[in-house]
Write a structure and sequence with these properties.
Shape: globular
Structural class: alpha/beta
Radius of gyration: 26 Å
Strand content: 25-35%
Order of helices and strands: HEEEHEEHHEHHHEEEHEEEHHHHE
Distance between the termini: 90 Å
Number of helices: 12
């Protein structure tokens, strides 16, 4: 073997002995499981982070008591980045964002508007765009400090809930890659799941995800109930199942909805816009206080379901369009796809035109047999 070949071989053998030039010491970083955003004085923003603490050290004073598996740090800044840098100084570690599970926005900040701050999420190269958005009825900092969920880290439980682990299709659930663009998207605007303290006093510290926060552009304009949120999911095409309660003469019947299909057709009549909404699917009777025999009363039950569901959809669309003037269903995008030329003239004033939009709703569900009862 030549001298040159021997020299090359020696260099190759030495390479594994060297460290990686871009290596990051794991001891110098900490995982951000949740980010909370609130308004601060003088137009600043308050940032609260939930940092993972996997070592679970014994609390001061000994004994078996352990610290929580996460730590809360907060700071104020002109921008989110300013606040993050202050938090890093206090935590003495770099913040690791790729595993962030929840971005929690306080309702006060959401109602003031988000455009001045959220460019951080577009510019932070290690941001997790699959993290879930939540709007908190309490300040985000208070929510993160006081949450006491069944899982050790509250953000993990909130994420599991929003991913549908418990099979609750009536809740809206939006990830950052969907939420951020829709804050400035005409024709399909943002909506986010809401979170707040559970109403049951015995569940102190437990949080409840239910209502939905409606946005017009970058500003939150109001709330929808859990039942209304379910209808948003159907009309926006993000869910094909759910539940509905029929009420008649003081009695009730609970229905499980499935195979829901929705079609929306825009119709233009002079200066008016009409959306024809067709909704079909299957409904299974789960429980009832009504004396029902499906062999005889199937038609009656179907009529009640179709009529009451039609009314619920009308109220939800009217509340969203006429009260909030926000298109969270994506009906503007329907016009954009079907009539691009017409959309160019409607787009500049779309939010303002929503108040005069008309709807024609047709609901038809087939009633399926449930259990052993006829």
């Amino acid at each position: 073997m030549s001298f040159f070949a021997k020299a090359v071989l020696c260099l190759l053998l030495l390479l594994p002995l060297g460290g990686c030039w871009s290596e990051i010491d794991p001891d110098q970083i900490t995982v951000v499981s949740a980010i909370g955003l609130d308004p601060a004085e003088n137009g600043n923003i308050a940032v609260t982070v939930q940092l993972m603490n996997p070592t679970l050290p014994i609390a001061a004073g000994g004994g078996n008591q352990q610290r929580r598996p996460f730590a809360i740090y907060s700071a104020n800044g002109k921008t989110i980045q300013d606040a993050v840098e202050l938090i890093q100084l206090a935590a003495k570690k770099s913040l690791f964002f790729p595993q962030t599970q929840v971005v929690l926005i306080g309702e006060t900040l959401a109602r003031r508007g988000l455009d001045d701050f959220l460019d951080f999420f577009w510019r932070e190269e290690n941001q997790n765009f699959n993290s879930w958005t939540l709007v908190s009825r309490l300040p985000a900092k208070q929510m993160l400090e006081n949450a006491s969920e069944l899982k050790a880290v509250p953000a993990e439980e909130w994420k599991a809930f929003l991913r549908g682990k418990w099979g609750r299709p009536q809740n809206v659930a939006m990830q950052m890659y969907q939420f951020l663009p829709r804050l400035n998207q005409v024709g399909f605007q943002a909506v986010s799941a809401g979170i707040g303290p559970a109403p049951n006093p015995s569940k102190k510290g437990l949080m409840e995800i239910g209502d939905a926060a409606v946005f017009r552009n970058d500003r939150m304009v109001g709330w929808l109930t859990e039942d209304e949120s379910q209808i948003v999911n159907w009309l926006a095409g993000t869910s094909s199942k759910g539940r509905f309660l029929i009420v008649a003469d003081g009695e009730a019947a609970s229905m499980a909805m499935s195979s829901i299909r929705v079609r929306v057709f825009p119709v233009f009549r002079e200066d008016r816009i009409l959306f024809k909404i067709r909704l079909k699917g299957a409904a299974e009777l789960k429980t009832s206080t009504m004396p029902i025999n499906l062999a005889k009363d199937r038609g009656k039950l179907k009529k009640l379901l179709d009529e009451q569901l039609t009314e619920a959809i009308e109220k939800t669309v009217d509340k969203t369009f006429k009260t909030y003037k926000s298109d969270i269903f994506g009906f503007g995008e329907v016009i954009h796809r079907r009539h691009p030329g017409k959309w160019r003239t409607l787009k500049p004033q779309w939010n303002e035109q929503l108040e005069s939009v008309e709807t024609e709703i047709e609901v038809s569900f087939r009633i399926e047999r449930a259990g052993l009862l006829k």
